[in-house]
Write a structure and sequence with these properties.
This protein has 588 residues and is mainly alpha-helical. 50% of the residues lie in helices and 5% in strands. It contains 17 helices and eight strands. A hairpin with a 6-residue loop joins strand 2 and strand 3. Helix 3 (70-100) packs antiparallel against helix 14 (433-459), helix 3 runs antiparallel to helix 16 and helix 7 packs across helix 9 (252-261).
Length: 588
């Protein structure tokens, strides 16, 4: 009898029944059964081979790490440092963006407006003005292609405009525009920008709404805030119903708005008279008292202006603030594109001469005497220190100033600048950006040095001492790199260690102190709240440990060329010798 095949079932080895059909069926069963068995066996053996292959590759990888050659160590170090630097570029941007969202006001748990690193002009102002300014900057002034970008850039360096913002009477966009009307030496850009803030405060659905319920489409508010600018609609500076049937302003506030911002915003405000609720004061109600001779009862009736009259008088006005916002966005242009300012001619008789005016003899004598002295012989200007950067709110452009005084009748030209642009930092209790910049710079410098050393050692890997009997110019330069760059790279590893520890203290230790030791402490208390800073701290710590392990493996598994060996000097004292040994342990 033929031997039984392994893996073939007993049923398949039986004699087939009579008939062609039965024989074909048994043959199919006999061939199918061993096929299924072989497939499962092959899968199992395939998984076993893959597992053994992974183990062999892992062993080779571990062996290669334990016996690193010097060029391999430097190229791996270059990759590690380059990954660390690139990661910090992106994570630092995320961390800064998060810290900019933290409000410095104490009502939101911040450190306080007086403790920020910059002078924030709107920090102590009401929420309506702050939110309207934030949205105006975000939607209309943060990019060069937006409508108010240039106006905002000029406004930040306008000292007269900043003085109006600092006034105690300036509490909202309306009082700001009123102050601009009476202020002198204020630029047109300042008026244009603050008119934009006013229009946004009235028209944006995040700040005002016909129904009195606002959303948070642009994310400028905290969750418990509603229509933060609804109070503007009932400002007592407006006369009751002055725009109900007429487009002519009567109150001081509306006259100032028309004078500074133009008639378009008046038309928009008149269009708000169609709102069903949250009715503006300038469209509002009047009260009439009727006295009857028969009784002493007094009946008060409210006379409300019909919307048909308002619609007939202002055909170009929009029906609601939400409609205005959607119309402007649908047109594909930034909000406030329709704001026009009245151009004013600033006349200054003292600073400009009329075309036909003659110069007096005394003025001619002064001009002649001043030109007789060379500019180099004139005294210098007395220049003071730069002030804090002054901005409207955190993380926005601003300006800083200094005193520039001439202590003589005339000083050297040109006169030094007394005002220059700057950028305000965040208002969070986390001053860590400088550490991140230093750590990022160290990573990139380490990557560059490691790559240069990889090229140098790869070039001389198979050279012997005989090849260096007479050095060429390129060999001299390469020898300098061989001798000087490895100690510099190890020194940067120590610098990186201090940065990693400093970063861990700012992110983790400061949080533990504020939670369990001193709950009133504000020292770096906002750093832990940033997930990006947590990731930076963990990643930098891991990369430092991994880099040191690579150095130790290269130190143990490889040897420098003999022509680079430099023994320890026996004259070194106790601490210097131990420090040098620790220093050399960081890498080859």
């Amino acid at each position: 009898a033929a031997p039984r095949r392994r893996g073939v079932s007993i049923i398949a080895q039986r004699a087939p029944p009579c008939g062609i059909a039965g024989g074909e069926a048994w043959s199919a069963m006999a061939t199918a059964a061993p096929t299924i068995k072989r497939t499962k066996t092959q899968d199992k053996s395939l998984r076993g081979r893959l597992a053994r292959r992974c183990v062999r590759i892992s062993k080779k990888g571990v062996s290669a790490l334990l016996h690193l050659s010097i060029p391999t160590f430097f190229i791996l170090s270059c990759i590690v440092y380059l990954c660390g630097g690139i990661s910090l570029v992106f994570l630092r941007s995320d961390a800064e963006e998060f810290l900019c969202t933290i409000r410095p006001q104490t009502e939101f748990g911040g450190i306080g407006c007086d403790k920020t690193s910059s002078s924030l002009l709107l920090c102590s102002k009401p929420k309506c003005w702050r939110n309207a300014n934030n949205l105006t900057y975000k939607l209309n002034a943060s990019w060069p292609t937006q409508s108010l970008y240039q106006a905002f850039s000029n406004t930040t360096t306008d000292s007269a405009c900043s003085d109006v913002v600092k006034m105690s009477s300036s509490t909202d966009p309306i009082t700001m525009v009123i102050g601009l009307e009476t202020a002198s030496a204020v630029g047109e850009s300042c008026k244009q920008y603050h008119c934009g803030v006013l229009e946004n405060a009235l028209a944006l659905s995040d700040l005002n709404s016909p129904t009195g319920v606002c959303g948070n489409q642009y994310g400028s508010k905290v969750s418990d805030e509603d229509c933060v600018c609804s109070g503007l609609l009932q400002n007592s500076a407006f006369d009751v119903g002055e725009l109900a049937g007429s487009s002519t302003p009567n109150s001081t506030a509306l006259k100032a708005i028309e004078s500074v911002c133009g008639s378009d915003i008046i038309s928009m405000m008149q269009g708000m008279c169609t709102w069903s609720s949250n009715f503006p004061r300038w469209c509002g109600t009047t009260t009439t008292t009727l006295t009857s001779t028969a009784t002493t009862a007094t009946t008060t009736t409210t006379a409300t202006t019909t919307t048909a009259t308002a619609a007939a008088t202002t055909t170009t006005a929009t029906t609601s603030a939400t409609g205005l916002e959607l119309r402007l966005i649908a047109q594909g242009r930034p909000l406030l594109g329709n704001v026009t300012l009245k151009s004013r001619r600033h006349q200054d008789g003292d600073s400009q001469h009329s075309p036909g005016k003659k110069i007096s003899g005394e003025a001619r004598h002064l001009q002649t005497s001043s030109t007789s002295i060379s500019n180099d012989e004139l005294p210098d200007w007395d220049v003071g220190q730069w002030s804090q950067c002054s901005c409207y709110q955190q993380c926005t452009p601003g300006a800083r100033t200094r005193s520039v005084t001439c202590l003589s009748t005339e000083c050297k030209e040109p006169k030094p600048a007394d005002r220059e642009p700057c950028a305000c930092g965040n208002g969070a209790a986390c001053t860590i950006d400088l550490q991140l910049v230093v750590l990022m710079s160290v990573y990139f410098v380490q990557a560059g040095l490691a790559f240069v050393l990889f090229l140098c050692y790869s070039r001389t890997l198979h050279h012997s001492e005989d090849d260096f009997i007479q050095l060429s110019f390129t060999q001299s330069i390469s020898g300098f790199f061989h001798k000087q760059l490895p100690p510099l790279l190890r020194f940067l590893v120590l610098v990186q260690l201090f940065q990693v520890v400093y970063l861990a203290i700012d992110v983790w230790i400061a949080y533990l102190v504020s939670q369990y030791i001193d709950q009133t402490s504000t020292w770096q208390k906002d750093c832990f709240a940033s997930k990006a800073l947590q990731h930076i701290s963990g990643l930098s710590s891991f990369l430092w440990v991994f880099g040191v392990l690579l150095g130790r493996c290269a130190k143990k598994g490889s040897r420098k060329p003999d022509w680079l060996f430099s023994p320890d000097r026996p004259s070194r004292s106790f601490p210097l010798r131990q420090l040098r040994r620790c220093f050399r342990c960081l890498g080859p």
